[in-house]
């Protein structure tokens, strides 16, 4: 599916004028509530489901075939983000997953993207950063902070210089 901007919100072209459907997975009730409120302030976006853990996230994917995005905590109810992404991608190969966490982005972001996530946002970022990340992923692009992007480009450039 491709995303297209319509007014203030983002709508999926194949479902014109239907709101973007997002699920939030986090074992912390207060954080899940806050992320949900932030998302629902955006025109054309709705949180259609919430989950606390891997089992709940899998039920969400099963119940909502037309889900546009899942926002997942890196560690939800003692489940690693890697296992969560792996299981969600097995259940729904086209799932768009954005991970948010307190952990240092340089430790996890690259590996999570390789595992199938489409982005990584640190929890200490301002709310606008999460909104920017959601928009980027809904457009079908990978979201990483500018610092992480620079790190990866530098690493890649260094490898190509050594190989070339």
Describe this structure in words.
With 164 residues, the chain is an alpha/beta fold. The protein contains six helices and nine strands, in the order E-E-E-H-E-H-E-E-E-H-E-H-E-H-H. It has helices at 29-40, 54-63, 81-91, 105-115, 127-138, 146-163, and strands at 3-6, 9-12, 20-25, 45-51, 69-73, 75-76, 79-80, 97-101, 119-122. Strands 4-3-5-8-9 form a five-stranded parallel beta sheet, with helices on both faces. It has a two-stranded antiparallel ribbon with strand order 1-2. A two-stranded antiparallel sheet has the order 6-7. A hairpin with a 2-residue loop joins strand 6 (75-76) and strand 7 (79-80). The protein starts with a strand and ends with a helix. Residues 1-8 and 10-15 have low confidence and may be disordered.
The total strand number stands at 9
Low-confidence parts lasting 5 or more residues at pLDDT below 50? 1-8, 10-15
Secondary-structure element series: EEEHEHEEEHEHEHH
Strand order of the largest sheet: 4-3-5-8-9
Basic shape = globular
In short:
By secondary structure, the chain is α/β, with parallel strands linked by helices. It has six helices and nine strands; from the N terminus they run E-E-E-H-E-H-E-E-E-H-E-H-E-H-H.
Task: For this entry, give a set of tags.
globular; 164 residues; alpha/beta; 6 helices
Ordered list of secondary-structure elements with their pairings:
Layout: E1 3-6, E2 9-12, E3 20-25, H1 29-40, E4 45-51, H2 54-63, E5 69-73, E6 75-76, E7 79-80, H3 81-91, E8 97-101, H4 105-115, E9 119-122, H5 127-138, H6 146-163
Parallel strand pairs: 3-4, 3-5, 5-8, 8-9
Antiparallel strand pairs: 1-2, 6-7
Helix pairs in contact: 2-3
């Amino acid at each position: 599916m491709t995303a297209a901007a319509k007014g203030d919100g983002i709508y999926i072209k194949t479902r014109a004028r239907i709101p973007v459907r997002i699920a939030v997975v986090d074992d912390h009730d207060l954080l899940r509530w806050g992320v949900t409120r932030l998302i629902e302030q955006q025109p054309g976006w709705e949180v259609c489901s919430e989950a606390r853990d891997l089992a709940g996230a899998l039920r969400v994917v099963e119940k909502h075939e037309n889900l546009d995005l899942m926002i997942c905590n890196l560690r939800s109810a003692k489940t690693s983000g890697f296992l969560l992404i792996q299981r969600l991608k097995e259940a729904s190969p086209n799932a768009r997953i954005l991970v948010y966490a307190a952990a240092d982005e340089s430790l996890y972001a690259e590996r999570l993207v390789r595992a199938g996530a489409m982005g990584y946002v640190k929890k200490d970022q301002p709310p606008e950063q999460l909104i920017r990340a959601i928009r980027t992923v809904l457009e079908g692009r990978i979201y990483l902070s500018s610092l992480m992007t620079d790190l990866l480009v530098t690493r890649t450039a260094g490898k190509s210089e050594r190989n070339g």
